[in-house]
What we know:
Layout: E1 10-15, E2 26-30, H1 39-47, H2 51-58, E3 68-72, E4 81-86, H3 95-111, E5 116-120, H4 130-144, E6 164-169, H5 172-200, H6 208-218, E7 224-229, H7 231-237, H8 240-246, E8 254-261, E9 270-274, E10 276-280, H9 300-314, E11 320-330, E12 342-344, E13 350-352, H10 360-371, E14 378-383, H11 387-393, E15 398-402, H12 405-418, E16 422-424, H13 429-432, E17 442-443, H14 451-460, E18 468-472, E19 478-479, E20 489-490, H15 495-506
Parallel strand pairs: 1-6, 2-4, 2-5, 5-6, 9-11, 9-14, 10-11, 13-17, 14-18, 15-16
Antiparallel strand pairs: 3-4, 7-8, 8-11, 12-13, 15-18, 19-20
The structure holds ligand BES, manganese (II) ion and zinc ion (ZN).
The site of manganese (II) ion has 4 residues, from loops.
Amino acid sequence: MLSDFGGKMRILTRKGKITEFKSAAVVVPYFEDVKELAGAVKLLDEETGGMIKDIIATGDFKGTLNQLSVLYTRGLIPAKRIVLAGAGKKTDLTMEKLRSVYATAAKQIRSLQLKEFFTSLDFIGSNESIEHTVQAVVEGAVLGLYQYTNYKTVDKDKKRTPNEFVIVEEKEEVCTIIRSSAERAGIIARAVFFARDMVSAPGNDMTPTAMAAEASKIAARKNVTLRVLDERKLKKIGMNALLGVSKGSAEPARFIVLEYRGGINADPPVALVGKGLTFDSGGISIKPAEKMDEMKSDMAGGAAVMGAIMAAADLKLQVNIVGLIPATENLPGGRAYKPGDILKSLSGKTIEVISTDAEGRLILADALTYAERFKPAAIIDLATLTGACIIALGDLAIGMLGTDKELKNRLKDAAEKTGERLWELPLWEEYHELIKSDVADFKNTGGRPGGAITAAAFLSKFIGKSPWVHLDIAGPAWLTKDRSYIPKGATGIGVRLLVQFLKDWQKRD
Length: 509
Ligand code: BES
Ligand code: MN
Ligand code: ZN
């Protein structure tokens, strides 16, 4: 039971002056370092008899980042309220701050139970492009309002979100740019909601079979095709690492292959591989009970890959993509795989299972081997792979490891642009020693020290010649506290990063 991705708020662009429109509220960013009012703020101030200057003069509102003040216009202009949204110093403005300003304002609009809000983007200097600004504003406003209410039956209407966000602009040419930029931003936000919804969904409903059903919704789009390998097929081709993990569960495993072809035929695809562990109990090496419920989010990598392909198809990006999602549960059961077991992976390489809780790398091993069949130009995997990565970086950064400098640089660049930040960890030769097994080719754990790195070292054994990067999203996939435009819970991390990466990939020679 997934929602229509909560993307219910319409985003409109209208030509005219901000003071002309009748609305519940007008949101205007206010910069703390302005010397003299200009643009929309000035207009609103003048037509309300100096309301904005007044509140500034009292010192009650300064415009520091995310500070808010609601002014009631008492019929002086058609808009009922002016929401002053502190945006910090104009000289320090970043797209990340702008996302946060509009998320904070949008949440204020929601808490006032208003149906709509208007804004003007005439603060854009000549330096920032309109397109990027609109993207940040729309993403902030929409993503900040995310709520997962699919399973609520009581008080559901208290969670109502505004249904219209209107950007007002005086110049027709600029309106056109805003309109198309807002549409593209809306597509991306919808894909983030799709991923968040999948990750928020409980394990009893978001099974491997249900993930495949979600994939088929994406495959309804132009140029997208879907193949789902069932257990019979997986046995036949020898995906025994994936099958090994799934043995303890009564839910059948699935291997999801989503292809999007927006590029020319000869263009080798980007392979995106996402961990699809729909519930990770740890298996026989069972996890402690505390917070085990959060392990429904262990398919966040798979959800991100699906969201990214959804957005790429809707944006009609000129790239070829293959998305690979090994999906299974990890449960203890009479037939469950055990510590000491040896699995023969799809690659033919053998793996000694030390901990059944190091299951992600096992299912990814088979998926990475499979990815090489597509002769991809790059392989990027996303996985909530290790607790060690959370210890290293917290929930603020994705851990990045890989074999290809150019690919890493492209991802760093996309991370900077989207605010889905990442940090590189080393993958030196010495770490590879730690995953050698006495009885098989490799073992599936390398001990606690450097756990995020030895996990990546393990994955690297299943990469052939393709440039490869591994993104450990264990930290940022799930938040325990609200952030401005990311409510606590499922974040949809990776979707915006991958979409930005793919957008830039189009322009590659
Ligand atoms: N899915 C977990 C990693 C994880 C933990 C993600 C907490 C998000 C929050 C993964 O399958 C796992 O259990 N990893 C083990 C590996 C260890 C046994 C080598 C870990 O990190 O403890
Ligand atoms: Mn695990
Ligand atoms: Zn896991």
